[in-house]
């Protein structure tokens, strides 16, 4: 071991000193200086320090300094440590969530435990973890900040970029009742398991966020109570959404012709500025469409008879529009209907008796036709008036209390233009001779109670 050792030592020392000065530059820690004082005392110690050097090199990401010749027969062989592991999905998401807290004011302290003291990211309030299927590792699978009232710090707008665009493992993102105002980040298009997006009751403005329609996994889209404007894109009806809540925005223009392609069960388009007729294609949604809220828009024209095809419909509400014409005879085929609201329009004619015989209406249903120009009711409908299911307040029915004045009725009925296909509307029945049979009656499953009316309040809706 004689001279060879000293050469090795001096080589080693010079490189160690280089390294130490570099390290001191970075840290100036006492422990390192202490190690330097001990260096000369023995070879064994020097070897001990050699091992320490390796550690330092790793700490500062070394390898740039001149390498020493290997020490001869080191007492213990230290294998080259594996390269540092890339951050896990959970660690990456944690960084995003912690970073997010720097940009928000959180008046209810919803994110108070989003901090370094909370060791497990999955314990962060509102975070749901699950195993990410592709890599079988834990990941942030969902985020629920509903009704947190979070807004941007220093009067800056609160952006969805910075959080929604950086957690690709998300399956749901629920931020009802906060102050998000930016556009929807395009990154969500590539999220492989993203199925629920609830941005309701925020401050989104501009046109319909098309990014939300480019992820084919999405089944639940809730944009209620924002300030979105412009047309409703036709793409909305060609993807596999089960729930479309877009009420209480400022959407305007016609509903696209492909409207009926939707496979959604729940549609709330209420309280926008939509106009034009209700597309006839609506009948194509017969096998799925269950609740339809069109109230509070500017729809006009006559109701298409195809609505009568909606054999699953439980709720159909077109109140507060500018619709006219008779109630199509086909409405007698709305087998499951419980809530039928046509109030505050310009409907006229007789209320079809087959509608007043619908089982879902007779049994605690609700048929609201107030503030129209209906002129006649038959015996079945009289029964519903008496049982308070049917409200015909402020119409033109002779002999019924609380009706419009003769003058008002006369003026309306002498100026009204009939629907283009009015004869057909008054006679066509898509279900004639089918479901009136007893056998089908017994097969009926009790309809679930309506859910979408809750969407008219700006809070989280749980289906
Ligand atoms: C932290 O968030 C801000 C604001 O969303 C974003 O611009 C920034 O890139 C984020 N930083 C990191 C390291 O993610
Ligand atoms: C919420 O966002 C709106 C629109 O971006 C903004 O005008 C308002 O000041 C924000 N509210 C708070 C409390 O920051
Ligand atoms: C029927 O619905 C209307 C409109 O939503 C409501 O005002 C009325 O109270 C309901 N009637 C009954 C009997 O529930």
From TrEMBL:
<keyword id="KW-0677">Repeat</keyword>
<protein>
    <recommendedName>
        <fullName>Leucine-rich repeat-containing N-terminal plant-type domain-containing protein</fullName>
    </recommendedName>
</protein>
<feature type="signal peptide">
    <location>
        <begin position="1"/>
        <end position="28"/>
    </location>
</feature>
<dbReference type="InterPro" id="IPR032675">
    <property type="entry name" value="LRR_dom_sf"/>
</dbReference>
<keyword id="KW-0732">Signal</keyword>
<dbReference type="InterPro" id="IPR051582">
    <property type="entry name" value="LRR_extensin-like_regulator"/>
</dbReference>
<dbReference type="Pfam" id="PF00560">
    <property type="entry name" value="LRR_1"/>
</dbReference>
<dbReference type="InterPro" id="IPR001611">
    <property type="entry name" value="Leu-rich_rpt"/>
</dbReference>
<keyword id="KW-0964">Secreted</keyword>
<keyword id="KW-0433">Leucine-rich repeat</keyword>
<feature type="compositionally biased region" description="Pro residues">
    <location>
        <begin position="67"/>
        <end position="87"/>
    </location>
</feature>
<feature type="region of interest" description="Disordered">
    <location>
        <begin position="61"/>
        <end position="88"/>
    </location>
</feature>
């Amino acid at each position: 071991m004689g001279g060879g050792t000293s050469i090795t030592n001096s080589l080693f020392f010079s490189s160690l000193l280089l390294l130490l000065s570099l390290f001191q530059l970075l840290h100036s820690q006492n422990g390192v200086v202490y190690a330097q004082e001990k260096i000369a005392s023995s070879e064994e110690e020097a070897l001990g320090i050699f091992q320490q050097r390796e550690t330092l090199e790793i700490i500062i990401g070394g390898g740039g300094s001149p390498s020493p010749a290997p020490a001869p027969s080191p007492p213990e062989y230290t294998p080259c440590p594996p390269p540092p592991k890339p951050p896990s999905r959970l660690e990456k998401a944690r960084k995003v969530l912690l970073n997010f807290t720097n940009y928000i004011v959180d008046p209810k302290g919803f994110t108070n435990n989003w901090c370094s003291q909370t060791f497990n990211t999955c314990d962060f309030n509102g975070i749901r973890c699950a195993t990410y299927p592709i890599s079988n590792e834990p990941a942030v699978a969902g985020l629920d900040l509903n009704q947190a009232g979070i807004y941007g710090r220093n009067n800056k707008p609160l952006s969805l970029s910075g959080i929604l665009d950086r957690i690709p493992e998300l399956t749901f993102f629920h931020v009802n009742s906060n102050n998000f105002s930016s556009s929807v980040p395009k990154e969500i298009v590539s999220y492989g398991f993203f199925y629920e997006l609830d941005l309701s009751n925020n401050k989104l403005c501009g046109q319909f966020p098309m990014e939300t329609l480019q992820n084919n996994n999405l089944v639940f889209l809730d944009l209620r109570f924002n300030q979105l404007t412009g047309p409703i894109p036709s793409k909305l009806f060609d993807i596999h959404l089960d729930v479309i809540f877009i009420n209480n925005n400022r959407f305007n223009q016609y509903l696209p012709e492909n409207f009926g392609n939707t496979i959604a069960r729940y549609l709330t388009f209420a309280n926008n500025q939509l106009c034009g007729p209700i597309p006839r294609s609506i009948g194509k949604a017969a096998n799925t469409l269950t609740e339809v809220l069109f109230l509070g828009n500017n729809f006009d024209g006559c109701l298409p008879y195809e609505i009568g095809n909606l054999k699953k419909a439980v709720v159909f509400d077109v109140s507060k529009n500018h619709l006219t014409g008779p109630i199509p005879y086909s409405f007698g085929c709305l087998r499951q209907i419980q809530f039928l609201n046509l109030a505050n329009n310009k409907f006229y004619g007789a209320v079809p008796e087959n509608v007043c015989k619908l089982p879902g209406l007779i049994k605690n249903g609700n048929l609201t036709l107030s503030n129209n120009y209906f002129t006649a009711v038959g015996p079945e409908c009289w029964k519903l008036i008496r049982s308070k299911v049917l409200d015909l307040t402020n119409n033109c029915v002779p002999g019924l209390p609380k009706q419009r004045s003769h003058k008002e009725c006369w003026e309306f009925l002498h100026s009204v233009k009939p629907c283009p296909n009015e004869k057909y509307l008054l006679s066509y029945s898509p279900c004639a001779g089918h479901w009136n049979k007893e056998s089908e009656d017994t097969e009926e499953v009790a309809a679930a109670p309506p859910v979408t009316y809750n969407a008219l309040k700006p809070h989280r809706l749980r289906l």
